[in-house]
Amino acid sequence: MLINWFTVFAQIFNFLLLVFLLKHFLYGRIISVMNAREEKIASKLQVAEQKMIDADNERELYLQKNKENDARCEKLFTSASLEAEAQKKELIENARREVEELKERWHESLREERETFLANLRKKTTTQIYAILRKILSDLSSADLEKNMTDTFLKKIRTLGNTEKNKIKDILEQSHYQAVITSMFEIPAEQQQIITTEISNVMGEKLEIQYISPHDHICGIDFRAKNYRIGWNLDDYIKFLEEEVDKTLEEELAR
């Protein structure tokens, strides 16, 4: 087979010419376009990366602000809760104090009313008893009444226990065996002697007794030595009545 060198060289020349033309007119532009596109893509990637960084920064800032807001809200909530609890305690304490004050004023008012009631009751009771006594004394003979009072008084003296007798003896010794007997009526000298002898026998010592009859003395006989008293007296019944009424009022107030 014969080689046509002219054709070979012509093809080589054409190829080199094509390469030259491509490089001169086309390859440079393609490279420029590719470089420009690459730069554009790189720029976009850089912008995207910057946006990602900015987005991350924004997210971190948002999370930080949320955390700060949560902490601030928690602090405000805790402070509000403590303040509300303090106000609640203060209101409860004020209410309790007001209730206690009202209760105290109410009890004070009841005590005043009770004292007024007892004073009026005492006055009315005493008045009624005096009226009854006047009626009784007008119906009974003085001699019988005096004798009954004397007998009741002496019976009370005779029935004293040893402890009570010893107590009276000690008091009489301190008062040099002097005592006072008070009665509503003036006791006759004969009965005075009987009473003095009877008490002296019971106490085992001779006594010096003074007998008095004040006008304001309620019916009965009292034996007094210093601060000791024994006897029979309507005043005891009046005081007992007052104590019972007072006890009843106390029970009613306690309900």
Approximate shape: rod-shaped
SSE-based structural type:
alpha+beta
Q: What count of helical segments does DSSP give? A: 5
pLDDT averaged over residues: 76
Given this structure, which CATH class of one domain is correct?
Alpha Beta
Number of strands: 4
Low-pLDDT runs of 5+ residues are: none
Question: In what order do the strands lie side by side in the largest sheet?
Answer: 2-1-3-4
Helix content: over 70%
Architecture of one domain, CATH level 2? 2-Layer Sandwich
- Write the H/E string, N to C: HHHEHEEEH
Radius of gyration: 62 Å
Straight-line N-to-C gap:
145 Å
Q: Could you walk me through the main structural features you see in this protein, from its secondary elements to its overall organization?
A:
The chain has helices at residues 5-139, 142-158, 162-174, 189-203, 234-254; strands spanning 178-183, 208-212, 220-225, 228-233. The N and C termini lie far apart (145 Å). It is α+β, with helices and mostly antiparallel strands. The longest helix has 135 residues, at 5-139. A four-stranded mixed sheet has the order 2-1-3-4. The chain has a domain at 142-254: hypothetical protein PF0899 fold.
